[in-house]
Design brief:
Number of domains: 3
Radius of gyration: 29 Å
Structural class: alpha+beta
Number of strands: 11
Helix content: 40-55%
Number of helices: 20
Distance between the termini: 49 Å
Largest sheet: 5 strands, antiparallel
Oligomer: single chain
Length: about 600
Amino acid sequence: MPSRKYADGEVVMGRWPGSVLYYEVQVTSYDDVAHLYTVKYKDGTELALKESDIRSQSSFKHRKSQSSSSSPSRRSTSRSRSRSPGRPGRGRRRSSSQSREHKDDKKKTIQETSLALPAVLTLFKPSENNTKRYNGEPENTEKNDTSCIILEQKLKPDMEIKHFEQYSLRSRKDEKKKDEIYSEKKIFTTVKTIEKAPSKTKELEFGGRIGTFMLIFLLPATVFYLLLMCKQDDPSLMNFPPLPALESLWETRVFGIFVLWFFLQALFYLLPIGKVVEGLPLSNGKKLQYRINGFYAFIFTAAAIGILLYFQFELHYLYDHFMQFAVSAAAFSLALSIYLYIRSLKAPEEELAPGGNSGYFIYDFFTGHELNPRIGNFDLKYFCELRPGLIGWVVINLAMLLAEMKIHNLSMPSLSMILVNSFQLLYVVDALWNEEAILTTMDITHDGFGFMLAFGDLVWVPFVYSLQAFYLVGHPTVISWPAAAAITIVNCVGYYIFRSANSQKNNFRRNPADPKLANLKFIPTATGKGLLVTGWWGFVRHPNYLGDIIMALAWSLPCGFNHILPYFYVIYFICLLVHREARDEHHCKQKYGLAWERYCQRVPYRIFPYIY
């Protein structure tokens, strides 16, 4: 095993991933397995770097002394012939060659969009006082020797943040300060892609190994408990339901129907319709391609259900065997999770999930070891996120509506059932219509595909999110038209906040330079991304979560107030989003450093304005 070269606390020069710039960093820790150093930049950003990307400060000072040793007469001769006054000891032909070489390298660097240089670094202009500029306007690249790139943006004075100390990788005669920069020609010729090796997951979530082990059993038990409670005449919390016989929970025909449903959605996913888009850059700089056809799959599913109803297929079969369907979905998700973990053991290191690479079997099995498991071009995680479970949720709601009409001999469904179906249908259609937006979520960019997402997508979403409709079948609730109008307004307000906030975020992530977003202010960060401080994101830090909670309340209100069971979804959603918010806070603080602290000062409320 190679020995460690740099000690904890040592101040060294670290190369920014994807660039040729070195910055003063401090070593905080070392991973003996991955052989990576965790370093901390001056703005608080922490990254994992290879030993080859770290150099001692003395090596830079050594190059400086070598550069200064050139004879004055040689520098004078070079200065009279060279185009670049800041580059001593170069003739005309060498200067022209390196100028062309520098332009080619700069074009390659600009194309590295996934881990771009900090947006706050402007083009570095060589001058007597070595001044750093921050004005959003690029310098004349034909006249200035530069190693930086810039994200053009119109910045306000109040958006400025503390920058890194910047180092150029070329020696300059007039540089006298400590923050001078030096480079070697081979760095320019070899840097083509972003080099960022994955590291082991150090901070474990969900209670670590013990917590994830318990959740593997607790999540299915919660689903079955809720469904059994809804079947009771008195679904109060103190009235624990009797456990059914084990043989009654399994039916091979039901399992076959579920598997058929899963592969039918897979067939719709594989149809060559809809546009193909690229996801966000991965850690290695690559971008995966995704076919956006979820809304088409929904239309085809609706047509298939319509055909079944035309031929008098009794869709309320779902209601009669609801528990068996939930057990079948849980069994399928468990089998899928086992397959995902086994295949992840052979996956390359760069394809492992940042949050599911702890080295602990239970934890990685639960959170997901591989980031984007694919069979050819078939992305398993992306498919399960929106297709079988989300569309299945709508089908289950429809089955509950028909079951209510049959059981209670109604000519049309109740107003409460209509509201629940309509609100949740809008939510699903919106998700499928804006399918591309999911590519920027943490589920896709950060979380691996393991038991947590497999069970959540295939079991929790369709069988827990449809809890209100399932409850109304056995516990009909009558509401007045004014009450229905008020509940509709609540849902519309929540939906408006949810959709407009997500649209602002997704559009800004995709193209910050879009003229339509010119009115949005943001705080630039060291990663090249900006933190919005206007619009909904200047109101609270997670306005999309606020919209989600308001909508969840509107979905439960049609069930009345006789029992708390229909409001489980609201309670669960608040707990889930508070957990996600805390997770996002921790992640963003590590990622954005001082910029995130400034953003939190600017936007103090997390989800609920003036409350939390």
